[in-house]
Specification:
alpha+beta; TIM Barrel; binds ligand C2E; binds magnesium ion
Length: 858
């Protein structure tokens, strides 16, 4: 699994650093602006707070100064001997009011709304708004005057005035009070007896505005405490319920208001600029981030790719290589070690051609022809691995380019040793025989094509077709393992007999071909064939057996039979056929007349086919007698062919041909039926013998054929005797046994024909359900030659009898033979001496005369 692949979380984890930076800058900028604005507000607020403090300070200052001035002013009246004299005790109104020492002008000039002279008990003098009135001062003011008098008179310094805030006629006013004392050097006055002078300075709006202006206060005014706004600077006038206020300058607010439009505009512009900058910065940041992202992704992809490369490089069966421009190896993947057994250190720095070898193209020139865009091309190379073993690899390569310059190459090397071996194996199998390893028909054809390509200019060659004699019986009787062992041994002997430049091929079965190069003279070929036949005649040992085979050879020579491979093989084949027919273990050169024989054989085959169709066969019958030659006990049916042009042909002329084709099957059926039907026409219950061909066993269901004929002809099975040669057993030991048992179950008799010509006849006799044996005519013919031959026949007769078999002697041609067989107590005899095979009419006549003879005899 690729764990390094990009995931969204990875991307978000790594990326928008630049964007964050820009965002942070943006936030900082906004914060800065906010801080600046806040600072501005703070300043404005401070200015306003300062304004409040200052306003309060100046109101207080203005009030204090007015009070101080009034205090000074009242002192100038109260601390005055004249006033003391006119106002202590009874008030001198004349002096005070009429003379205007303390009358109207105090109101009109000094803006004092009330002027009073009081003592503890009463108001002695009152001027309100410039008019003298007879009234109590307390009626104008809401303050306890008695306390004020007591306080003033109790002062150690009687000249010190004091003030009170009060409502005068309902309006706030400052009452300044001072004890009226003389300012001359007179004895101490009694404070308790003094009068008090009161100046009432009503704080009217006009006066306050005037006072305020002196202190830069706008609209100094009075307001009820209950209507005071919070934070408004005010100076309370004690219990009057009023406070002095003044309109605030609010410089902070003014500052803000004055700065607001340009500041707003500037901020707007700044905001726009910021937004623009921010967008631009964000875009740039995004690009930077994107490039960072892509860089990061590329990095991740690169890491993943490297990871994958490593995984692939290690997991693949291929190894990866790199070389520089000098073709020196600069890199080898770890697989190199696993595949070749070398360590990469052994090869790094060496030229690649030291390691790999290509037999068709030098690697250097192959690399030189590679083009970048081109798909990786392959080159098959070989090398010796660590243990010196030859290995093959398929090398692919691509140039490494730095701009336009090729700085080296890299590629892979896939091990194809097994593939090459398998390919070679397939090639070998297609051209060689699997069993012997010899070249097969294909390879022979190629070899001949190459050898004969130059026609008459090519070197002469002799083609020998070799066929083993007696191979098939060995294969069939001892099994395929034995057959294989024989073929292997034969192959080895053929190889041993030939030279390097010659070719030995197996065409199949027991057929071999030898091509001798540079050979054309018969003497040379004869020598070779003699040697070869001699070699193949040597017994072959297989397990406990000593097997004897031989060989027949047909020879064709290129200088004579031409340069066409197929024709040469055909000629050698014809010559072989000739050699076999000449008695085996020999060789024959092809001669043109053999062509005629082949032609004849072909013609015969055609004729035979026609004959089967046209029913051109007849049966001859040869009787079998009791050994005294007196009585016919059975009759053998022997087929003849009434050839339209060649006359009556004996079975040897056509049975082998029929056996080689399928014609043996219909022919045999005809014989069987004809024999049964004919025998039915004869009187008595004579046994009828019919010969079976081994080929029938292979190509048809013999049991079924016999059964059918018996059923259809109503011929009693007990009268039918089938003659089977040993070859039947040789071909298929088990199969033959089964068939023979089945035949026996039909109720027929079985006779072994030509006994003594085959292999282990005695063994067969024990195994197979034979009723009798027919000793081959060669034994009978040789009986008179030597006592030894006679003894052989005697032994066979005794053996047969010992096994409970009916023993028949074939080919009895002489009276002597008949006599000997009689002496040896052979059961039955057959031969020219007694009767030749004759046609059915003749046989019927013979039978008639024989039966009448026996009747006569009896
Ligand atoms: P075979 O079954 O052993 O038949 C005996 C052969 O010996 C016959 O030859 C017969 O004419 C010949 N013969 C008999 N007595 C003498 C004698 O005293 N001296 C000599 N030299 N020969 C004698 P024929 O008829 O030419 O048959 C040859 C072989 O052809 C037979 O040998 C048998 O194997 C085969 N054959 C004949 N008819 C048939 C047939 O209908 N079917 C099959 N499958 N084979 C047949
Ligand atoms: Mg026979
Ligand atoms: Mg025979």
């Amino acid at each position: 699994m690729d764990t390094t692949a990009d995931t969204p979380s990875d991307v978000s984890r790594h990326t928008p650093i630049t964007r964050r930076l820009v965002a942070a800058l943006g936030v900082l900028f906004v914060l800065g602006v906010l801080v600046a604005v806040a600072a501005l507000f703070n300043i404005a607020q401070k200015l306003d707070a300062q304004d409040v403090d200052e306003t309060r300070f100046y109101i207080q200052r203005a009030l204090d100064n007015r009070i101080t001035a009034t205090k000074n002013y009242i002192t100038s009246y109260a601390y005055w001997t004249t006033a003391y004299e006119h106002l202590s005790g009874e008030v001198d109104v004349q002096w005070a009011y009429a003379d205007q020492n303390m009358g109207k002008t105090l109101f009109t000039n000094d803006e004092l709304e009330g002027v009073f002279v009081i003592d503890r008990e009463r108001t002695k003098y009152a001027v309100v708004r410039g008019q003298q009135v007879q009234a109590d001062a307390a009626a104008f003011m809401n303050m306890p005057l008695k306390d004020l008098v007591d306080e003033l008179q109790a002062q150690p310094d009687l000249t010190r005035p004091t003030i009170r805030y009060t409502l005068f006629e309902g309006w706030p006013a400052v009452v300044t009070a001072s004890v009226i004392v003389p300012n001359d050097e007179r004895p101490q006055v009694n404070a308790r007896e003094t009068s008090i002078l009161l100046f009432v300075d009503q704080l009217t709006p006009v006066k306050l505005r005037k006072v305020g202006m002196g202190y830069g206060l706008t609209d100094l005014n009075l307001v009820k405490d209950t209507t005071l706004e919070p934070g408004q600077p005010a100076v309370p006038l004690d219990s009057t319920g009023y406070s002095l206020i003044s309109q605030l300058q609010r410089p902070g607010q003014h500052l803000l208001w004055s700065l607001a439009p340009p500041l707003g505009g500037a901020l707007l512009i700044l905001a726009l600029l910021t937004a623009y900058f921010f967008r631009y910065a964000m875009r740039t940041a995004r690009q930077v981030d994107a490039s960072y992202d892509s860089l990061e992704k590329s990095k991740q992809a690169l890491e993943a790719s490297e990871e994958r490369f490593r995984a692939v490089a290690e997991a693949a069966s291929d190894w990866i290589w790199e070389i520089d421009s000098q073709q020196r190896i600069t890199y080898l993947s770890a697989r190199f070690n696993a595949v070749t057994g070398f360590s990469d250190q052994q090869w790094l720095g060496q030229e690649i051609e030291q390691l790999l070898f290509c037999d068709t193209l030098p690697i250097a020139s192959w690399l030189g022809n590679l083009v970048e865009e081109q798909n990786a091309s392959n080159l098959r190379c070989s090398y010796r691995d660590h243990s010196g073993q030859l290995r093959f690899c398929r090398v692919s390569a691509r140039p490494i380019q730095d701009k336009a310059t090729v700085t080296g190459y890299r590629g892979t090397a896939s091990d194809i040793t097994d593939e090459v071996a398998a390919h070679a194996q397939v090639q070998h199998l297609s051209l060689h025989d699997a069993l012997t390893g010899l070249p097969n028909r294909n390879k022979l054809a190629r070899h001949l094509d190459d050898a004969l390509i130059a026609k008459e200019h090519s070197a002469p060659l002799a083609l020998l077709m070799v066929d083993l004699d007696n191979f098939k019986p060995i294969n069939d009787s001892l099994g395929h393992a034995a057959g294989d062992a024989v073929l292997l041994e034969v192959a080895q002997r053929l190889r041993d007999s030939t030279r390097e430049q010659d070719l030995v091929a197996r065409l199949g079965g027991d057929e071999f071909v030898i091509v001798l190069s540079g050979v054309e003279h018969s003497a040379e070929i004869d020598r070779f064939c003699t040697r070869l036949i001699d070699s193949l005649q040597q017994p072959i040992h297989y397990e406990s057996h000593s097997l004897h085979i031989g060989a027949s050879i047909g020879v064709a020579v290129s200088r004579r039979q031409g340069y066409v491979p197929g024709e040469l093989i055909r000629c050698a084949d014809i010559a072989l056929y000739q050699a076999k027919s000449e008695g085996k273990k020999t060789w024959c050169y092809f001669a043109s007349h053999m062509n005629d024989q082949i032609q004849h054989r072909r013609q015969l085959e055609n004729d035979l086919r026609q004959a089967v169709k046209n029913n051109e066969f007849i049966l001859h019958f040869q009787p079998r007698y009791t050994v005294d030659g007196q009585e016919i006990v059975a009759v053998e049916s022997l087929v003849r062919w009434q050839h339209p042009t060649q006359g009556l042909l004996s079975p040897d002329a056509f049975i082998p041909l029929a056996e080689q084709t399928d014609l043996i099957v219909p022919l045999s059926r005809w014989v069987l039926r004809e024999a049964c039907e004919t025998a039915l026409t004869w009187p008595g219950s004579l046994m009828v013998s019919v010969n079976l061909s081994p080929a029938q066993f292979e190509r048809s269901d013999v049991v079924e054929d016999v059964r059918q004929v018996l059923i259809e002809t109503h011929f009693p099975a007990s009268r039918l005797e089938l003659e089977i040669t040993e070859n039947v057993m040789l071909n298929d030991v088990d199969g033959a046994l089964q068939v023979m048992n089945a035949l026996k179950e039909l109720g027929v008799r079985l006779n072994m024909d030509d006994f003594g010509t085959g292999y282990s006849s005695l063994g067969y006799l024990r195994t197979y359900p034979f009723d009798g044996i027919k000793i081959d005519k060669r034994f009978i013919a040789s009986m008179s030659n030597s006592s030894n031959d006679r003894a052989v026949v005697q032994a066979i007769i005794n053996l047969g009898k010992a096994m409970g078999l009916t023993v028949t002697a074939e080919g009895v041609e002489t009276l002597a033979q008949l006599g000997s067989l009689g002496t040896d107590e052979c059961h039955e005899v057959q031969g020219y001496f007694l009767s030749r095979p004759i046609d059915k009419q003749a046989f019927a006549a013979l039978l008639e005369s024989s039966q009448s003879m026996s009747r006569t005899g009896s």
